[in-house]
Amino acid sequence: MTMYNQATQEIAKPSELLTSVRAYMTVLQSIENYVTIDITRVFNNVLLQQTQHLDSHGEPTITSLYTNWYLETLLRQVSNGHIAYFPAMKAFVNLPTENELTFNAEEYSDISEMRSLSELLGPYGMKFLSESLMWHISSQVAELKKLVVENMEVLTQMRTSFDKPDHMAALFKKLTSVDSVLKRMTIIGVILSFRSLAQEALRDVLSCHIPFLVSSVEDFKDHIPRETDMKVAMNVYELSSAAGLPCEIDPALVVALSSQKSENISPEEEYKIACLLMVFVAVSLPTLASNVMSQYSPAIEGHCNNIHCLAKAINQIAAALFTIHKGSIEDRLKEFLALASSSLLKIGQETDKMTTRNRESVYLLLDMIVQESPFLTMDLLESCFPYVLLRNAYHAVYKQSISANA
């Protein structure tokens, strides 16, 4: 019924499959009037198996088929630049490219389709989908850590030299794989954006089915005292995440990143690598301004090359890494903001038009990072990046989009 074709990577839309399943259920329930079969038990047995990775015969289920399709087809095409995440529409949308895709991303990722997917997979299936997404993120983080180790000496110097512009410029030229770091962080952000759509859909579906239970879980999460032990807090976050509620620290991401600790590296060294990863991303942001695809579009509330997803990636990766390494998430994000602000302020003095063509669009990333973060405030951003620059940047990108449409 999923009409999955591995060769052409085609699959039925979740809403179509849900309609078919409900039609079957209605027919079978009417048969119960004439034949003594416990149809409810049949439904529970069959549909619960479909929320697992494999059924009782070891065959793939709709959970494994849809998880595979979203990861290997939809999200891979996002990484290839054929699809973008549009925050204004809360959906992934096809971009006009030479190679037309065989499917319309919006028809598989909008709110109604994600709710249908949640209805089909249930909390167990959505948990499996989340864990699969996190596995892909952890492999990207492992590669990012390797790039940090390659540039460790330069990054260590940059971490303490952000108030010396000339020295920072000289050090930046020594960095390698800057584009790779930004691309990998953007991919992480895209995966997290897709997961947030899935989580929101799960929360909507559960709120219809079990409203009192969901409101109790929300109450638990919203009233965790700040002094609560982290292990206890993570248990509450895990419960909340299973109900589709967004958490300050993503428990699935913490579990995925915890499992990749290296035996040869000490905890202190791991912590240093995590800190320097944030430094690497912060000092690399200005290079995005030279990319023609980095232009901000007010209509989609984002950028066509998905760099707006960096805001989610930076906040959630920092929260997970510094939970694992028992560091202060707030302090590390403050350090990130200081480094990113000083790096972006420098491109304000550049005269090369190619280097700064989308400068204003990249400035907006700072605002997005703060808006996305439960640990940062606008007051803090104001202390290291003048708000007048952000206001002018918003004005410039809106003016640019109006003239482009005209």
Task: Write up this protein.
It is a single chain. With 406 residues, the chain is mainly α. The chain has a domain at 136-405. Helix content is 65%, strand content 3%. It is built from 17 helices and 4 strands. The strands form 2 sheets. A two-stranded antiparallel sheet has the order 1-2. Helix 5 (111-150) runs parallel beside helix 11, helix 8 crosses helix 9 and helix 14 (329-346) packs antiparallel against helix 15. The model has no long low-confidence stretch (mean pLDDT 89).
List keywords for this structure.
globular, two-stranded antiparallel sheet, mainly alpha, 406 residues
**Rg for CA atoms:** 23 Å
Main sheet characteristics:
2 strands, antiparallel
Strand order of the largest sheet: 1-2
Low-confidence stretches: none
Number of β-strand runs: 4
The fraction of residues in strands falls at: under 5%
N/C terminus separation: 46 Å
Principal-axis shape: globular
Mean pLDDT, to the nearest integer, reads 89
Classify the helix fraction into a percent range. Answer: 55-70%
Number of helices in the DSSP assignment: 17
- Helix-and-strand structural type: mainly alpha
Task: Provide the succession of SSEs.
Answer: HHHEEHHHHHHHHHEEHHHHH
